[in-house]
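BUG: 3D viewer hangs when loading the predicted structure for this chain

Environment: internal workstation, default settings.
Expected: structure renders.
Actual: progress bar stalls at 90%.

Input used:
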Amino acid sequence: MAVHVDAALPIHALTVSDLDRMIEAGVLTEDDRVELLDGVLVEMSPEGPPHAAVIARLTRHFVLAVEGQGLGVRVQHPLRAEARSQPEPDLAVTADAFSWTGHPTSAVLVIEVAQTSLAIDRGRKAGIYARAGVSEYWIVDVAAMRIEVHCEPGPEGYAVMVSHGAGASLTPAGFACPPVEVDEILATG
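Structure tokens produced before the viewer hung:
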């Protein structure tokens, strides 16, 4: 159920520490599909078969690619991006993927797969990832069958965005990796 709040109402922005306490107290559980974005708990969209297939293909590709590079792949796990944001990207390649003591605060690559979340992935999440210093951010636009590559992060967002469609090969800049073939990732069969 979506709730629309009158913009004139004062809102108390949550912090990552507030979120941690809510989880510890049992207010939120693993079954609650929410993420903290700019101080607001936001419901995450249900995952359809195309979304799941794309994540599985990307996971297979990147897990094999990062082996031996001191990097790990996190799939739909929190990224402690800033004091009031803890998004759960569909995939993140990060140096501290296996930390027992806390979620990573940045990544060399973050990928969001957008079926129904394109506006938030291009807007709010892009800003959060850029401010967190995520050097490269990909949005897989399932409907358009394209992958957007955002790079050169800064306080105002990403300075560069290039969209790649059928026939394109993408190679992340932050680590050694075989090319990602757009056609293979977005194949409908």
